[in-house]
Each structure stands twice: as structure tokens, then as C-alpha cells.
Amino acid sequence: MRLLLCIFLHLVGVIQAAPTTNTTTTTIDSFQAPSFTTRTMWIIVSSSVLTLFACIYSAIHPNIPSPKDSPNRILRRRIGIMIMALIAPELIVIWAMRQWFSARSVTRRFKESGYPSVRPEQEQSEKKESVEAPEQHGNRFLRFLHFLRLLPVVLVKGVLSVPVFIWHFLGHLVRWVKAHFSEQSEDHAWTQTHSFFVLMGGFMLYLDGEPYCTLRPDYILTLIRKEYIDAPTLTAKQIHDKNKGNAISKGLIMLQVAWFVMQLITRAIYHLETTQLEVGTLAFAVLNFLTYTVWWNKPLNVQCPHPVYWKSTESRPEDHIDVPNERNENLGLWILTPVESILELIGSPGIPTSRKLQVPTFDGSIKLEDSDKRVLPLAALLMATIFGGIHCMAWFFAFLTYQEQVLWRASAVAITFTPWLCFLVHLSPNSATVVMGLVYGLIYLVSVILYITARAALLVLMFTTLRNLPPDAYKAVSWTSLVPHL
């Protein structure tokens, strides 16, 4: 159904984007004097809104809901994630990157255990590895220098996200074609897809025929070794069968994002006016590339976990694993709390990292390697800088009023440098005084409020500045309408 809808929207977009009025005549040198077509306000808004929707809805891979969640609660949670993606898209990228780091660690752990034939003799060694190392409280200035040394690593990962996506897309397309034209035997080996599946709450422990708790990766290995559960025999193919997205549907969405970026580049080359709405959408599109790359193997919109049944009649699960209490959520609180989400993401000890029947949206329960822990905050700063920097590209754009221009500039600077302010406060020397603690807390609170206010102002200005566009904003390079897009 989603594929048919995408094809239909593509045909509608081609019809609407067909050349209408040829405002210039072509010359012998078509590169120096390209032919232009006229685009309408509907085309400007619809292309931007479709791309924006792909970035805040289709690109987000939510975790599996609780079996007790009603459709209304699932919808409210999804809307909350979309609102957070509009306000702080960098947080979504960091969420995806943290899950990718966690999935890589979980995959290595399961392969070393010999899954599905888990070797009991490795239990003691794995327990030692799972013990969290004490935090080293060294000179924070030296830690800051170490972070700066890792900045080129993050830059390289960001630049390589586009070719990595293309490689993933071609590889999955080849495997998809191969799966439809050849017979394949069932392979129960643990893959990256299994790791994403367990991290999103894919395995549910059943006790006496009722869902009891969501199984974390270390719980699965522990219970298998003690023979309280059987090793789940879920193959990667069966997980993909639960997936609501495939390489074709994801590729169509990425095609729309790539076309949007391409037509903005052509507008800059031929010195055509670009709207603030398109600049804001471009910022989302750039972050969307990295999100899709790291979430490529994560199943999309899975609604039901895979059941794993408790076998022992002499003991209960809480005797062997930590079973969290059921969290009572306020039905009226349908927007995710940003502060709590950030604390969950970084794995703060003050926030429960696992709920009984579902995994939190921003789960930080998996312990990361030291290098990954250093890369994540730098990646967050890099994403915030890129996102705010793209908004600063509209610094000298035409605005109807001087007040709107000043508000756009101030908001763009705020979302660019506010994360850096919080980062520098975090690296400042520790102070045992209550006064300095209150000062640091006040800086964090003001920064969050300033960031959310600036993001809201930019979202409003993206649409209010459309009321009186310059004539060049309605021109478009004719050949861009021939590129497939939605």
C-alpha cells in the first residue's frame, strides 16, 4: 500500500511539475542559458512539506509498543516523537547513532557466545565484561582536547554517510532480487537486524501465558545459559517479514530527499531565489541522510514482539534478572518530555532505562565503548552546528520586514551555538558548592528554553515568509522536473 501511494504521488508530482511557461529561449550553449519553467506556490509548499514529512515521520523507526498500549496511546506517542523531531532533529540522529553503536556491540556479544548454541563456559567472562568501569574523573580540559582530536572521525563519518547509504541500498536491492529468484535455507545466526530488533523491545518474556517483561540482550543470554528459556529461533527473514518498510520504499523516500537537495543546488548555481521554507527543509534533509544510513537494518513500525516462554516451574524470572516495575503514564501527557528523553538517551542513572512491557523511546541501557561515548557528544555538536549553519544560509535572503530578518538571524545563531554553550558548561571544572550547581542548572534550563523558542520561531517564519515572494522564486530549471520525485 505504501509503495502504491508513493508511485501515485510521484505521478502527480511529475504532472504538476511539467513545464508550463517557457520564460526564456534556449541558445546554442544550453549550460550558460538553461530553459526555465514557472513553478507555483503549491509546488513550492508541497515539495517541501513532502520532504519534511519524510524526515519527521517516515525516517523515524519507533520501538515496539507495549502489548497493553491502546491505538490511541501509540498514536499519541508517535505524534510526540514527530513534534520532538521538528523541535530537535539532532536528538533523533543521536538516538539512531546510539542504537547503531549498541546494535554493533550486541551483535559482537551474541556472536562470541556462539548463539544459538550458547556456550555456558563463557558466562563468567561475559559477566566480567558487562561490569561497568568506574568513570575516570580527570582534567576536563584534557578531555576537551581529546574530544577535539576525535572531531575528524565524526566529520569523516558524516561525509561518508551518503556513499554508505548508496552502498547499503544497492546491497539490499541485490539481496532482495536474490531472495525472490533463489531458494534459501533458514539461517538462525545472530545478525545486526536481530540486535536492532532486541533493542527496540522485540523479545517478550511470557509467564503463564501472559506477557511478563521485555527481554534485554544480556537477560536473553543469561536465561539461555541457565536453561530457563529456549534460544529464540527467529531468523532475519522472519524479522523482515514484520517490517513495514523495505529497500524499495526506503529508496523512494531517499530519492525524494535527494531530489530536493539537488534542485536547491541547481537554484544556487543559476542564482535563483530560494525560500526560507526550502532552506529549513534542507536542514532536515541533510540530517535525514545520516538517520536512514544508521537505521537501515532496523525494522520499521513493528507492532508485536516475538514471544519467549518461561520454562522453569521452580523459580520466577525476578530471581535471575532485574524486572522493572510497570510505569504508570499519564494519559494526558502525550508530548515526550525533552529533558527526560535526553537523560534516557545518555543512560542517566536517575532515569529508568527499561520498562516492564516496552523499551523507552530513547533507551540508554546498553553500555557503550569508550570511543563511542566520546563520539556521541561530538556527533551531537556537529549535527547541531550543521543544522543551525544551514539556517544561517538565509542570512541575506529577502524578508518582508526588518523584524523578521532580525528574528531569523537571532534564532539561527541561537540553535547553532546553544548546544556548544551546554557542552562547555559540561566540561567546566567540577564544583562542590551548591551555588555553582544552581548556576550550571540555570544555564542548562535557559539554554533549553532558548533553543525551543528559536526552533519554534524558525518554523513559523518558514511559512510566514511565503506571503510575498520575489519573482525569481517562482522560476525553476526545467530539467529538474524530469528527475523522478514525489
From TrEMBL:
Signal peptide (UniProt feature, chain positions): 1-17
Superkingdom in the source lineage: Eukaryota
Listed name of the protein: Uncharacterized protein
Organism field: Suillus placidus
Keywords annotated in UniProt: Membrane, Signal, Transmembrane, Transmembrane helix
Transmembrane stretches, start-end: 41-60, 81-101, 150-170, 276-295, 375-400, 406-427, 439-463
